[in-house]
Amino acid sequence: MTETLGKRGFRGALSGGAEHPHYKWVALSNTTLGMLIATINSSIVLISLPAVFNGIHLDPLSPGNVSYLLWMLMGYMLVSAVLVVTLGRLGDMYGRVRIYNAGFALFTVTSIALSLDPFDGGGGALWLIGWRVLQAVGGAMLMANSAAILTDAFPAAQRGMALGVNIVAGIAGSFIGLVLGGLLAEWNWRAIFWVNVPIGVIGTIWAYRSLHDTGVRRPGRIDWWGNLTFAVGLTALLAAITYGIQPYGGHSQGWTNPWVLAGLIGGVLVLGLFTWIERRVAEPMFPLGLFRIRAFASGNVAGLLASIARGGLQFMLIIWLQGIWLPLHGYRYEETPLWAGIYLLPLTVGFLAAGPIAGHLSDKYGQRIFAAVGLLVMALSFAGLLILPTDFSYWAFAALVFLNGLGGGLFAAPNTALIMSSVPAHLRGTASGMRATFQNAGMVLSIGVFFSLMVAGLSSHLPGTLDQGLTAQGVPPGAAHTIAGLPPVGTLFAAFLGYNPVASLLGPNLLGQLPAANAATLTGREFFPHLVSGPFHDGLVIVFWLAIGMSVVGALASLVKPGLTGQTRQARDG
């Protein structure tokens, strides 16, 4: 044994090989680091966008630059959603650890390229978007195979605990990124990419030297037509939903835009073609037979609904804090992205507190009840936020977002364990990718769904309220009416990015024509929050009722008893 360890050096001492009793903990540590860094980067840019665009000298609120803003927001999540199934399938075929390790290396290289952006303006934005797309490929390689590696490494009695630590770290990463991005962007916008480099280098070397494939590898062929139609269809559909929040043709939203309609209809048709192909190829990338396994099908339905609700909550709370609550409590708009992340820390604490515990207990008492209770706790927190006044007491707000995080933590690990334990060993990489697809697609869908609902809620009351408020401060009636008639999505984006919405809407020329006292009032910290509180709460009512409905339906799906709805062999063979 001593001689063997000597030959293996650091690799053998750390893991002792796949059969070593400590190997599972090495796998858990490394894959948790991988998940954490991948998901932190889904939100670290989101909170740092003002600093990033200032750094490349580009106004993100200019009409011609909104596309850059949207692709910086959704590009990473969209690419992850499209590719995780394919990369999970490649892991089943060529080795999950091999694909995972390559993902760590690619993620590190692209982080270096992102930090070295040499351009300004639109060129600088395109550089960042392009390298973010490649970074998302690396992140998808990590996300697609980490759960499968853990499912291979841990016995069934400890699997829920291991997946709980891994998945909750991943989900918490999206909230940790908000705080980390705010802190780093205050220093230098490039630091949000630099921070990945040392972690990525250590993680890559550690993964290559310590991880081993322990699962069943099944040689096969790539389903090229399935991959192509899935990528095209899902990209078109999710991109169209996201672009639907942009105004078009005098409407506050873009759902009548021919390109949006083409993306929606075309995306559905191409995904229909994808389904037809998958039913006929010998080795599909998306084994539809897995959906005949009740635990797999119901678990993914619950996971998708929870992801949409969680993503919508994240966006709405950021706007609520940055656009209303923080300015009312003395924070400058430029400071609000950082402090919004800090004030949302109870959400992350709730996730971290509940996740590993729920995973451990679900190993003993069953996953379904914990997953269902978790979503019901989330629904309860949404109901509490629904009745919270716009200018709330922070401790009541903190308790409710902590409760939401607690519910999410109770749900995440048991749900993942339920899904991953229900599939045959040789399809765990594919199943992990499919689960991640639903989760990532839910985050992208939440942008379109919840922004659209919020805009719909604002559209009925904000124009009149804004018109009266501006006129009362001396803005010429014609200008006030024109500004009040602008689509509310611009106001939401301004608040979301930490800009003073009124200053952005009026512009320096119009502000310069007003008396100094009036201009100071309009651009102060209290005018916009007081003005928008009522209309914003109308939008929140719509948003949170939908989130409650999604959470309750997801809880019911989680309670579906495990079993097969079709023939066992067909389901397991895909």
Supply database-style keywords.
disordered C terminus, mainly alpha, 574 residues, globular, 23 helices
Summarize the SSE layout with pairings:
Blueprint: H1 2-15, H2 23-55, H3 66-94, H4 96-115, H5 121-153, H6 156-187, H7 191-194, H8 196-210, H9 224-243, H10 258-278, H11 294-328, H12 336-343, H13 345-365, H14 367-387, H15 394-421, H16 428-459, H17 462-472, H18 477-484, H19 488-496, H20 501-512, H21 516-522, H22 527-558, H23 568-573
Helix pairs in contact: 2-3, 2-5, 2-6, 2-8, 3-4, 3-5, 3-9, 3-16, 4-5, 4-8, 5-6, 5-16, 6-12, 6-13, 6-15, 9-10, 9-16, 11-12, 11-15, 11-16, 11-19, 11-22, 13-14, 13-15, 14-15, 14-22, 16-22, 17-18, 17-22, 19-20
Question: Could you please describe the fold and organization of this structure?
Answer:
- InterPro entries: MFS, MFS_dom, MFS_trans_sf.
- With 574 residues, the protein is an all-alpha fold.
- Helix content is 79%, strand content 0%.
- It is built from 23 helices and no strands.
- The protein has helices spanning 2-15, 23-55, 66-94, 96-115, 121-153, 156-187, 191-194, 196-210, 224-243, 258-278, 294-328, 336-343, 345-365, 367-387, 394-421, 428-459, 462-472, 477-484, 488-496, 501-512, 516-522, 527-558, 568-573.
- Helix 19 (488-496) packs across helix 20 (501-512).
- The longest helix is centred in the middle third of the chain and has 35 residues, at 294-328.
- The model is unreliable at 1-16 and 564-574 (pLDDT under 50).
